[in-house]
Amino acid sequence: MLTTSAQFGTGAGGGITITDTRPASSGWEASAQTTDFIGPIGVRTTIDGNGLSFADVTPSYISGNNLAAGSVHTNSIDHFRSAKKTFATTTAGPGTVDISGLLQLLAPTSTLPGDYTATITFTVV
Fold first, then answer.
1. Exposed end of the chain (fewer CB within 10 Å): N or C?
2. DSSP per-residue string spanning 41-52
């Protein structure tokens, strides 16, 4: 297997920013889902999106915010092409938090070289 990784977000102001402004908020759940990685034009190769993981998911709290340290629970996710998977939750609100983590892709060694493209959809409910 080939492995590549990239840090996604680096503390406050990086990664995914979740802001809940609902006055009577009882919290939220954040999830992600990806597509397969499509190879370059002329190369009929894809990389299975289930080879993508989002690890070391970490919240960064903003001073003076209702969401304080320990109020957002995070976890790593993998194999999230087939279905959305939850990576962060809270029962507090309203407030804002930044989420960062490590995106890592595993691909077969037979993968042809080139730029591959996928879409990651983040959902907060």
1. C
2. TT---EE-GGGE
